[in-house]
């Protein structure tokens, strides 16, 4: 008979769920209502599997977990909790928890997890991961309680302390840099530097110098030696954002750095040794790009040692109220507003939007709405018009739909602030939308029509929260 120990101050209800998941006499479920009682039972007769609540009347579940590990690190420990904070899940998984489940427990999932844990216990497999604690950065905290985000937190916990390359995938604006920073903060390199570099935002001719540095006289304008990011960040972590846009010629040099932790500056012959952990992120399908020879397959395999995928906002319905509340309170402080609540009809309108620009678009929309807001409640009328409120024109509007005089008059009558920036954003959104629609998503032609560079267009699209998937296929130049 297999013995399950449940350490939980609400033990009877959870124990009944466990018994329903495992009917019959093959399993015995014992309960302990406090940390002290649970630890005493573990010392006296170690169980096969432990289910541990995160919050106990006489201590933290994480502290109890540490003590269980000193008694017998081979016992699989499954956290069961109502606490849905990202840091708790990351910390638990990083320190070696077998799994992390939310209450109320889903019986099918519980049965699967305990079954897997039992098999581990029978094989006496160690479930110990290296420990590395780091205080969470509250300002950049990851938000969300949906199952997909819970998997992200657990993945961060599993890999943070392991000094391996990580590839973060997901659509533009989903928060890939936040995940990279969480990996860094929970790693053994958290006291060393963290640097992030967007490979798509730097011209190809300068990107190599940014990464590897250059010697004086290496090219026209190189009047002094430059120390690159890989050299500056030795001992720390570097994020290569949008690595899928890195030129092929430069990919070979990055591959060598991953293999040997060595490189030469541009125009130099001295071999520079470094010690960096590389985290890469991309909205591209690198496997497909490697198959099309637009990305080195050997570099793809090196980057993809451990992959974390971030879900788009449209697949995180239960997270939207949490994110809205988080950013409304944060931006209210930054903008000097008193808004502390979102009206139900405004939240309903936000829920109805498909958020092609993901978190970045949500942030932009909420900032604009707060600039129009008065009072302590964010009303639907403060939202941009393409969401169902305010005076912004829809993104699909034609030039004839826009009346500048009416737009300005309405803003002034409502005591507008920042009208110059709002008007420019509105006109830019209209121009970029129409130009891309007219060229069927061809960036080069759209940039030519607008009289700007493709890089400027890329930066503006991201700033406006416009998602190019509206106009082009997913494998076009930008999403």
Lay out the secondary structure.
Elements: E1 2-7, H1 11-21, E2 27-32, H2 35-44, E3 49-52, E4 55-56, E5 59-60, H3 61-71, E6 77-81, H4 86-94, E7 99-102, H5 107-123, H6 147-159, E8 166-169, H7 176-185, E9 194-198, H8 204-212, H9 229-232, E10 237-241, H10 248-260, E11 262-264, E12 271-273, E13 277-282, H11 286-291, H12 297-303, E14 306-309, H13 320-335, E15 341-342, H14 344-352, H15 358-372, E16 377-378, H16 404-413, H17 419-438, H18 443-450, H19 454-464
Parallel strand pairs: 1-2, 1-3, 3-6, 6-7, 8-13, 8-14, 9-10, 10-13, 15-16
Antiparallel strand pairs: 4-5, 11-12
Helix pairs in contact: 1-5, 2-3, 4-6, 13-15, 17-18, 17-19
User: How many domains?
Assistant: 3
Q: Quick check: average pLDDT? A: 80
The number of E-state strands comes to 16
CATH superfamily of the largest domain: P-loop containing nucleotide triphosphate hydrolases
Strand content: 5-15%
Instruction: Give unreliable regions as ranges.
Output: 123-140, 388-401, 467-479
Q: Tell me the helix content.
A: 40-55%
| End-to-end CA span | 55 Å
At the first level of CATH, what is the class of the largest domain?
Alpha Beta
Which overall shape is indicated by the principal axes computed on the Cα atoms?
A: globular
Reported for the largest beta sheet, the result is: 5 strands, parallel
**CATH architecture label of the largest domain:** 3-Layer(aba) Sandwich
